[in-house]
User: Which sequence fits this backbone?
């Protein structure tokens, strides 16, 4: 938890308040974060067996958590809630599968609603965003007006090996030769929110209980697909997760038939007994047909693999280019946010290549 608190400070992520349950393990965790004085809040207390046996008590418990998830915060700041694993089928699936030390990130929406963003593992905090803030020193001021000795910032580990990273003309030439898996996050999705997917059989057939792609997301998919075609980057296969926003992104690319697979699902849609992390990486390590590339449309992820840390901070419709090694491994060699396709198009020509 100290590492998470240090990351919040290093990344200049402002925290307005830290609310914690009254249980010692939760309040101790909040203290270790060290980003704001923790305040006990009974709404975050762990549910009891009596709660689960009483629908009315469980519903009241869920309402309390929802109130905290939707309570507004001042501009340009955030709230940290330190609580417990929730029972299935209430509030949000991400909070019913949350591992110890992991953090589910929600965005507050108007009308007492919230929007699930992603889940971050403890080690991922230092990789949030596209830039790692490496201050030469961090000066900490206590409540007393004194300054303690500067603390050296930790050395950041690059998300892409600088010796293997591809950019500009070199990236375009490599993609035209094939051999890469283009891992893409779905397009902008701001319509609705994900429901209790794990509790609904065949949930992927019901877009009404999912967060869905917006007009902006559709345009992003169309634009990325058009750029891939215009740049003559060969694609032999397009795979998407089962989520509606991913399938629509895949079809919107216009790069050929779309195959839907649970291998690329987000964890909130993971069925019991299925390891989506292992399945996803197997797809990333698969070698495309000779002279072609594969497009994999998925989500941001809190993967334990070092090669997939980059997924935690992907923008919507961004592509991370993975190079499989033919031995069951794969690693990122480039990232292409939507605006960067225009730069590749402008640089395409005999003088550049």
Assistant:
């Amino acid at each position: 938890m100290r590492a998470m608190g240090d990351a919040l400070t290093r990344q200049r992520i402002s925290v307005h308040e830290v609310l914690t349950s009254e249980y010692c393990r939760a309040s101790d965790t909040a203290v270790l974060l060290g980003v704001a004085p923790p305040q006990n809040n009974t709404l975050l207390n762990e549910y009891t067996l009596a709660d689960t046996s009483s629908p009315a008590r469980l519903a009241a418990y869920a309402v309390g958590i929802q109130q905290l998830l939707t309570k507004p915060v001042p501009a340009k700041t955030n709230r940290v809630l330190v609580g417990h694993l929730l029972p299935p089928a209430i509030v949000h699936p991400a909070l019913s599968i949350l591992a110890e030390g992991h953090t589910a990130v929600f965005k507050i929406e108007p009308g007492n609603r919230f929007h699930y963003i992603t889940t971050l593992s403890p080690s991922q905090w230092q990789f949030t965003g596209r830039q790692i803030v490496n201050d030469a020193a961090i000066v900490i001021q206590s409540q007393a007006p004194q300054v303690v000795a500067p603390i050296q910032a930790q050395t950041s580990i690059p998300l892409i090996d600088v010796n293997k990273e591809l950019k500009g003309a070199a990236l375009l030439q490599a993609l035209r030769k094939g051999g890469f898996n283009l891992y893409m996050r779905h397009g902008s999705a701001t319509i609705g929110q994900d429901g209790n997917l794990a509790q609904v059989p065949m949930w992927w057939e019901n877009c009404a209980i999912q967060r869905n792609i917006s007009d902006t997301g559709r345009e992003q998919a169309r634009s990325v697909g058009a750029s891939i075609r215009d740049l003559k980057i060969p694609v032999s296969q397009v795979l998407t997760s089962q989520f509606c926003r991913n399938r629509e992104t895949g079809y919107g690319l216009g790069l050929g038939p779309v195959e839907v697979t649970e291998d690329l699902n987000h964890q909130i849609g993971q069925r019991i007994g299925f390891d989506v992390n292992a399945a996803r990486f197997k797809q990333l390590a698969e070698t495309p047909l000779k002279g072609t590339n594969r497009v994999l449309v998925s989500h941001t992820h809190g993967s334990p693999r070092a090669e997939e840390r980059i997924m935690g901070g992907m923008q919507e419709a961004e592509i991370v280019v993975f190079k499989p090694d033919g031995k069951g491994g794969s690693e990122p060699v480039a990232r292409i946010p939507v605006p960067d396709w225009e730069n590749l198009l402008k640089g395409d020509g005999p003088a550049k290549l």
About this structure: The first strand starts at residue 15 and ends at 20. The chain has two domains: 2-127, 168-347. Residues 157 and 317 are 24 Å apart (CA to CA).
